[in-house]
């Protein structure tokens, strides 16, 4: 291959990279929304993706057309962004060191996952050990090991305390897979909480109060016929040391001594609320609680 051919391919690759960047930016807004899938839909999507990936891989290995190869990669990338909600808006790589089979690059990534923006910076050291299997057809079986070091993660929000704790653990371990897996689940729960709070505020505007807006982690329930009585639903999203994301809801109450008729209801409410959560689920449980409060009983 002469220099002219190489230059043509380089120009074509640069043009395709610019086109991919432009298309990514166009779809960025739509990728902020929540993607809720049932178990059946997830399995169907994964089977479809697996089948397409295997077919695309065969084309990728044998197609001489660089544009075709990039189209396949772009299609797979877009599917994963849509499936996880993670969208990368910027990526840069800078060589740091190269010696023998060892190569080190410095990466800078930025993007968003649903409503949360993030920035990452880390070094990736790769060591390639290639073993020639067949000198006649010149095919190599590569064994690549990679180590992440100097990882720094910035979450552009101060309201996600549990996510900040996870970030500290990931920065120490360098486990990027754990970070992105938890980030996807965590932000999806945050968006679901926001939609739920907004739904009940719109449906029961005289009963539901959102002191911190729909992005807060609690709602207050009031009944004009029971002055002084307040029920507070607190909705936290916890991340444990292993990266498991769990929504935790609890019910608190404030009862003035003058509201005698509400005493029994409010004292039983926290226990009943937790029991209903396991039976009805979050949204139906909150609905039931609001209706009970509105009945003045």
Automatic annotation (TrEMBL):
InterPro entries: CENP-P (IPR027801). One of its GO terms (cellular component) is inner kinetochore. This is Centromere protein P. It comes from Podarcis muralis. GO terms for biological process: CENP-A containing chromatin assembly. The lineage of its organism: Eukaryota, Metazoa, Chordata, Craniata, Vertebrata.
